[in-house]
Amino acid sequence: SPQEVVSEESEEESNGVNLMGFSDEILLHILSYVPCTDLVLNVRRTCRKLATLCLDKSLTHTVLLQKDYKVINKDKVKQLMRDIGKEIYQLNMAGCYWLPSSTIDHVTRCKNLVKLNLSGCHVTSLRLSKMLSTLQHLRSLAIDVNPGFDASQLSSECKATLSRVLELKQTLYTPSYGVVPCCTSLEKLLLYFEILNRSREGFMLSGQLMVGESNVPHYQNLRIFYARLAPGYVNQEVVRLYLAVLSDRTPENLHAFLISAPGSFAETGATKNLLDSMARNVRLDALQLPKAWINGSGLLQHLKFNNPFYFSFSRCTLSGGHLIQWVINGGKDLKSLTSLNLSGCIHCLAPESLFRKAEDDIDSSILESLVVSCCNLRHLNLSAAHHHSSESIGNHLCQLLSRLKHLLSLALPVCSITDVAARVEKPPTTPNLVPQTFGRKVRIGIQTYPRNLEDQATQKIESSVFWALMGSLRFLETLEIIGSSFSSAMPRNEPAIRNSLPPCIRAQSVGDSEVAAISQLTYLQSLTLAQLPNILTGSGLVSIGLQCQHLRTLSLANLGMMGKVVYMSALMDMLKHCKCLRDLRLEQPYFCAGAQFFQALSHCSSLQRLCIVSRSGTLQSDAVMSFMANCLEVIMCHMFMGESLTVCKNLQQSIVRSFQAERPALNVVIFPLLHEDLTEVIRDVPMRHLDEITLFKSRVAEEPPNLWW
């Protein structure tokens, strides 16, 4: 703030040093770490020199407003556009859902815009037409297409601007081509299909598109095609219409073709023709296909790759033998590959899948070939599968992965990190623990886990393969350890799941001491732990809180026995040290969100988003209100518990009434987890929150790196 700048300058002058005495080059470098909104609206009013420097083109060229939840409102956007609109070449307003649609009108002042991101902002077709008519230099655009969009309302000037756009990201909430037919020069097309099967009025939707004059996309210059589908048959119908043109003529310059589709997405004659054409005519750098298009088709042996940087074979039945033979060419040097997603690919580390059981040991030679060939991997996802190592010395999965020194993000199943010797030993037990099923509600207390057993376990893990792996990946930023059979109680577009599958038997030996090993990751920013049944006290969480001071995102789900929250005391101790934590997601049956928990959570001074999912969980309304009053940065509070609808509604209304005025971006959803109307409530959650924190999923290598700016 200006006051802080002045106070720092006064203090430095008293010490014989004047900040303004630094060269302009040094000052510009310092100011580059300050958000542009602060520079223009606050810092430049401090003194004449800063007034000039804060408007330097190097600082105003790119304006990022996304996730600026507390600072940005409609008046500040108006002031910002009036002051520096003509100097802005890149403007990112993604996820600014709280701004009224009229705010978008001020973007017309940015006459020189080249890149514009309005994902998550409500923009009508008329408003879009008016805005784009003035942006003649625009080459990159991201928008949402909502119900009521009408392409026939786009002016000729708007269509002229769209004809010059090279990159388009379009999120569809209604069956439509959006502005794709107008973008005749497209080189990159990203499509996110978020269409529900039923309208708000309860009518069934279909994939019939109504887009005005034209319904033919222009793909002749396309280099990157990406489509991500939410669950639902309508999304599949609509994406097939987008693909129909591609099946007639495959773009010669296509080098990335990616379709992410959950569940079953059957191959048709048109898609088969498209894939055959791709096999004949293009060389790819990135590939992701629905599992039904790959399973048993032999397609991969015909596709040609140039310098691939991203592969995703998520949920495919691809065997390790075919992975090495068809994708890695029998051990070919693939140093260009930086991101690989094999989540749910249960046979990917086995030579063949015909007679193999999912629980059988992996073939370490396949993983070794993968590690040697793809030595520059930065993102690797092996979750949602049973990857069990054999007793061969030196061939454990963790030992082989430790060679990947460039890894920044890693997702592993819980059963893959256990030592081979540990699986034959009975894990330590504690007295008075409930069975590992959903039991009756019990009082939360501190576990009386024998200290000498805990010390022995810690000494043992320090010589384990997982401890060594964590020690070798010092620069890892994202880690996910997820049970191979874990499924969240809150699936997408469906009622809550009441029952969960039991964890893998080998996961029974993974507990507190393994979690403590994660504390070696000094630069860890995001951590997900799910379905670790042998958590007894949660003591490893405290170690993480103390050592991982850069932790920004924490997601914990189904740790320890399912009938009680055995790690509550440790979690509260951990939270007292998480000063940088911004996002917290907790999913645990019988979780008590009471005064002690929220008092500990109040130490997380940077916290912005909180999500709690708990079957039969309870909350204390006054504790929640006190927490919201003390934590001024919190703008999202989602709690899906076991409380009554009346209790939930009253608390939600109280939070909104008390804090919405001073926090325009505040989004509050408090609702019974097992209520039949849960899916209707979820559909109103801003996509940024829903996709990033409310819904559980593995995010490592989910998309190619740097897919969009």
From TrEMBL:
<feature type="domain" description="F-box/LRR-repeat protein 18 LRR">
    <location>
        <begin position="77"/>
        <end position="666"/>
    </location>
</feature>
<dbReference type="GO" id="GO:0019005">
    <property type="term" value="C:SCF ubiquitin ligase complex"/>
</dbReference>
<dbReference type="GO" id="GO:0031146">
    <property type="term" value="P:SCF-dependent proteasomal ubiquitin-dependent protein catabolic process"/>
</dbReference>
<dbReference type="Pfam" id="PF19729">
    <property type="entry name" value="LRR_FBXL18"/>
</dbReference>
<dbReference type="Pfam" id="PF12937">
    <property type="entry name" value="F-box-like"/>
</dbReference>
<dbReference type="InterPro" id="IPR036047">
    <property type="entry name" value="F-box-like_dom_sf"/>
</dbReference>
<feature type="domain" description="F-box">
    <location>
        <begin position="24"/>
        <end position="65"/>
    </location>
</feature>
<protein>
    <submittedName>
        <fullName>FXL18 protein</fullName>
    </submittedName>
</protein>
<dbReference type="InterPro" id="IPR045627">
    <property type="entry name" value="FBXL18_LRR"/>
</dbReference>
<dbReference type="InterPro" id="IPR047948">
    <property type="entry name" value="FBXL18_F-box"/>
</dbReference>
<dbReference type="InterPro" id="IPR032675">
    <property type="entry name" value="LRR_dom_sf"/>
</dbReference>
<dbReference type="InterPro" id="IPR001810">
    <property type="entry name" value="F-box_dom"/>
</dbReference>
